[in-house]
Amino acid sequence: MNQSTPLGLAALEQAIRRDLELLCLPAKDWVPPRPGVIDVLVVGAGMNGIAAAGLLRLRGVRNTLLVDAAAPGREGPWRTYARMETLRSPKNLPGPCLGLPNLTYRAWHEARFGTDDWEALYKIPNGLWQEYLSWLQRVLALPIRHGVRVVRILPQDGLLRVETEGAGTLLARRVVLATGRGGVGGNRWPETVPRELWPDLAFHTNEERCFAALAGKSVGIIGAGASGLDAAAAAMEAGAREACVYARRQVLPQVNKGRGAGIGFHYGWGELDDADRWALMVYLHDLQPPPPHETIHRVLRAGAQIHLGFALTAAEREGEGVRLFFANGEQRRHDVLILGTGFAVDLDAVPELAAFAPHIARWADRYTPPPELVRPEVAAFPYLGPGFELLPRSPAAPPELSRIHLLNYGAHCSFGGIASDIPAVTVAAERLVLALMRALFREEYPALRAGLEAYDVPELAGTPFHVPGPGVGTERVEE
Question: What pLDDT does 471 receive?
Fold first, then answer.
């Protein structure tokens, strides 16, 4: 067969079954069941949720459930508010493959389109990435329910009571929030923009909107990060009269330091002491990554404008539009304002954690940096335990708090980007699942020990040395 000819997904899936058979995976279900209780509930069926639920299944933790509020194929940002044309990451990253080569995007792509198509591919289109993630859900046989929104999580006698829309009330030993970059506070809305401008005159880049409605309009965009620039290009491509991006910086960031943080950072960030973790986070926070060069070229191609040195000081409704005021004395008027101001970190604004939020330790509670490294944005991050678990702010916290694990942007200060970026999603899943397995083993040790003692399959059956009878395996035989 010509190497460029696609093998097809059926052949790839057969190879995956063979890989799992050779590795004796999935492991036998080893956790003693509790009637009516889910061992691990994973909230969010994007790439991090898939990796967590998939690795739990492979490691023999089968009593799990993966839920997502979206419809199948709509999980995460890829077909909703992500407006870039391709992923920003290089195409050859392993992603949520759980250490199995045949579960990588490359294996899936070559099976569908052939190796020549893979070689010609520059970066992965958003739509294909979403198709790949949907395929992972299926090929890993994940127990998933769509259309389920978690409303609140409450403590209940050593367990977590999870109230939902779409699945009623669930009881779980552990809850993993794989809720992406917006999972610890939603969108960052600047104080300079009145909330009452939303939704008709102002909206955030992280909202799903029909850009066709921008045709013929003048659009202003605050923030020259990747999402703001992609929004500007998308507006022009949809027929906007003009799209003007305003950045407070005089010069755009030039180097993506995240690309320089290799596998050592993925595994080692969480093992550093607090001072080093804080200093590292501040270093990356202050530099900020530049927009991808592909995005800049797209903006220029589309005819959008980028204005540097424009720090927004105020915005107000003016007739059917918005007037913007800048620190340099300039004023601009637009029909619509789009905010590319990123994600907030504010645990008090996470509805499902409302019962726990006052008790959750933040970095501000656990570490005091030197004056030159004080950053309120960093201080707001949750201070997580080694398995991404929430930790108490004080002894008054409900003990169930540590049964909630943040496999989302909330882990950024404690562990780096392993729980919110493609390069290290499997590293994050490995750390999480090992912690969950250890916790489940400790909790169920009496039952597991009893099962061990009850195991009585005679090894010597069928040989002249077999001695029948119960309990023979526990007797000491003198040589």
Answer: 55
* In a domain? residue 323: yes
Q: What is the pLDDT of residue 47?
A: 96
Per-residue pLDDT, 3: 55
- The pLDDT assigned to 470 comes to 65
The pLDDT of residue 12 is: 97
Is residue 468 domain-resident?
Answer: no
The whole-angstrom separation of Cα 229 and Cα 245 is: 7
Rg of the chain over all Cα atoms, to the nearest angstrom: 26
Q: Residue 366 and residue 383: Cα distance in Å, rounded?
A: 7
| 180 falls within a domain | yes
Residue 479's pLDDT is 40
pTM of the predicted structure, to 2 decimals: 0.94
State which residues form the domain around 352: 9-185+345-445
Instruction: Report whether 211 contacts 234 (CB < 8 A).
Output: yes
Alpha helix (H) residue ranges in 38-149: 47-58, 105-113, 115-120, 126-139
Separation CA 438–CA 435 (nearest Å) = 5
CB neighbour burial string for 45-82, b if at least 16 within 10 angstroms, e if fewer: bbbbbbbbbbbbbbbebbbbbbbbbbeeebbbbbbbbb
Contact assessment for residue 324 and residue 220, using Cβ atoms and an 8 Å cutoff: yes
Cα four-point dihedral sign 205, 208, 212, 216: negative
Say what the pLDDT of residue 475 is: 47
Residue 15 in domain: yes
Query: Domain boundary residue among 339, 367, 398?
Result: 339
Instruction: Write phi, then psi, for 112 (nearest 5 degrees).
Output: -85, -40
Q: Are residues 116 and 166 in the same domain?
A: yes
Q: Tell me, what's the pLDDT at 4?
A: 67
Measure the CA–CA gap between 246 and 225, rounded to whole angstroms. 10
Q: What is the phi-psi region of residue 168: left when phi exceeds 0, alpha when psi lies from -120 to 50, beta otherwise?
A: left
CATH code, 313: 3.50.50.60
Residue 324 to residue 197: CA distance in whole angstroms: 12
Q: Pairing state of beta strands 38-43 and 169-177?
A: parallel
Q: Are residues 169 and 27 in the same domain?
A: yes
Cα 335 to its chain centre, rounded Å, is 34
Residue 178 to residue 409: CA distance in whole angstroms: 9
Tokens representing residue 304 in the block: 């959008």
What angle do the packed helices 105-113 and 126-139 form, to 10 degrees? 100
Q: Are 304 and 244 in contact (CB under 8 A)?
A: yes
Tokens read off for 215: 């045709």
Euclidean distance between CA atoms 310 and 53, whole angstroms: 45
**What's phi and psi for 315, nearest 5 deg?**
-145, 145
What are the per-10-residue average pLDDT scores of the chain (479 residues)? 72 97 97 97 97 98 98 95 93 94 97 96 96 98 98 98 98 98 96 97 97 98 97 98 97 90 92 98 94 96 98 97 98 98 96 98 98 98 98 97 98 94 94 98 97 94 88 47
